[in-house]
Amino acid sequence: MNEIIKSIFELIGGVAVFMFGMKLMSEGLEHGAGSRMRKLLGRISNNRISGLAIGTVITATVQSSSATTVMVVGFVNAGIMTLFQAACIIIGANIGTTVTGLMAAFSSFNVTIYFGALGLIGIFFVMFSKNDKLKTAGHILSGFGLIFIGLKIMGGAFNNDAMRTAMISAFATIDFPLLLVLISIAFTAVIQSSSAVSGIAIAMVGSGALTLVDSLYIIIGANVGTCVTALIAAAGATVNAKRASIVHLLFNLIGTIIFIAIVWIFSANILALLQTIELPEFRVAVFHTAFNMITALVSLPFVGKLVKLAEIILPDSKVKVTLKFKTTYIDDRLITTPSIAIEQVDREVMLMAENAKANLIRGFATILSGLDNERQIIEESEDEINFHNRAIAKFLIKISSVAVSESDELHIGSLHHVINDIERIGDHAENFIDYATEMNKFSVKFTNDAKDEIGSMYNKVVIMYDKAINVLSTRDSNALIEISEIESEIDAMKREFGANHIERLNAGACTVDSGPYFYAVVSALERIGDHLTNIAFSIKSPSGSQTEALGTLNKDHRAHEHR
Fold first, then answer.
1. What's the Cα-to-Cα distance from 413 to each of 30, 215, 399, 407, 513, rounded to whole Å?
2. How high is the pLDDT of residue 432?
3. CB of 15 within 8 A of CB of 53?
4. DSSP 159
5. 502, burial (CB in 10 Å: exposed 0-12, middle 13-18, buried 19+)
6. Which of 104, 155, 348, 427 could form a disulfide with 202 if both were Cys (CB 3.0 to 4.6 A apart)?
7. Domain enclosing residue 140, as ranges
8. Helix ranges, 226-337 (H)
């Protein structure tokens, strides 16, 4: 009995090492391939084949169908992916996850000692290297090594005669396909990793503690159990996001029912076919791959039907809760894949910047017209800008809590400054309508010369706005010098127009009462120029510092000339 307890603890330890290795490798692969994943998702269309391929590649990259499905639920919840597109990616994810099973089977070769050594090298990279790429490689290598060490420990737990006999007796007692499937579903739901369950099944078959036919039912059940993660992720989400998790469950349920029947009826033929493979571990892995691939390919033509079935199961709610403001691109479910989450933050920031620009245009128009009939629109838009500022800041903090690369950390830091600058531009836009209201109240008017001056300064700011946001979007540092020059021009305008206003006062061309408003508008435009400069230069300096950024640019330029 003591031997069995010892083996159980050894198995638990092996599973823990395996799952931690999976997490490390997944994070490393996600960091290293983040830009490629973003490009793949950017190509998503209603083509079911491309959706299947994208789901397969992304899951093979992050080594987790659950992570892919949760990410897809997040995209659907944000409204940037249709349910049909999500269904195709989810189906592809089931193919991508088979890579883990093949890796587990590969452990049947005596390679653990070599991969363990690679893991040690990876740990050295993580601990001592300052190079971002080497750190990423370190996570991948150390994770890879721990996966094989975990598999070795799991396999060793069943090498004990007492443990092996106990397992054989237990499964002989169960000896009913549906019960095996249900046990597998429950166990997978608890640990939320079909990869770990597959790894355990492969290790047990390799050690002789589990028959091949029983392992097939366990593999089948694990695919349903893994749906729990997506169902949990969909809690509190939109109806469509919940439907995406239901599609995932339906797809796996249909595949499970079909394959239970096939394996049950044709078990002798299937076993004979699998036994042509020499190594027992590979027999399980090959079945796992075939099961997922066949299910995916059979289901793909019926994606539309699955979507309609999900819509029938979960119809649109008759009572619709309308939030005053909501984010468009960011969703907490995306944080499991930081590189994708950061890409979505960038899109949300660009939307916030466009809203601030629209409000700036509205606000300044009131200065020239003297009318404040758009006050309600401007104030509501300012409330929305403030909402986005808080929502994005909170989301950035959440991303920072997960493992991100050094370059991503700098990018997150710069975005904190960028959204603050955009929010301040929104404040200036709101101030304009306050100035217009006061001027109207006290019958204060600008002369035509004053209007021409602030109009020309405003036009320069609008040009600068477009260039700054383009730099933020494209990360093109070539335009930074031009933006710096425009800011200098705006600063010069402020000085020149201030002097011109004094001349008009001395000449009696304008009233003393107009002075404070003229200076307030000119100063606001100059401050907006400063904020836009910070936004543009954030691509080189997280704080938006021109001095620091221009120093980096000059350094890069000298390095380029040297090459």
1. 20, 49, 11, 10, 43
2. 93
3. no
4. -
5. exposed
6. 104
7. 2-313
8. 227-233, 239-265, 267-274, 280-299, 303-313
Measured CA to CA, the distance from residue 487 to residue 255 in angstroms comes to 62
Cα separation, 348 vs 396, in Å, equals 11
The answer to whether residues 294 and 369 belong to one domain is no
Tokens of 133: 């790429």
**What is d(CA 73, CA 56) in angstroms, rounded to the nearest whole number?**
16
Q: Among residues 337, 357, 350, 432, which one has the least CA distance to residue 388?
A: 350
Query: Domain check: are 201 and 236 in the same one?
Result: yes
Q: What contacts 279, CB < 8 A, 6 or more positions away?
A: 105, 108, 206
Whether residues 308 and 355 share a domain: the answer is no
Q: State the pTM of this model.
A: 0.71
- Report if residue 51 sits inside a domain: yes
Question: Alpha-carbon distance 463 to 372, whole Å?
Answer: 25
Largest CA distance in the chain: 106
> For residue 466, what pLDDT band results from cuts at 50, 70 and 90?
very high
CB neighbours of 324 closer than 8 A, spacing ≥ 6?
A: 383
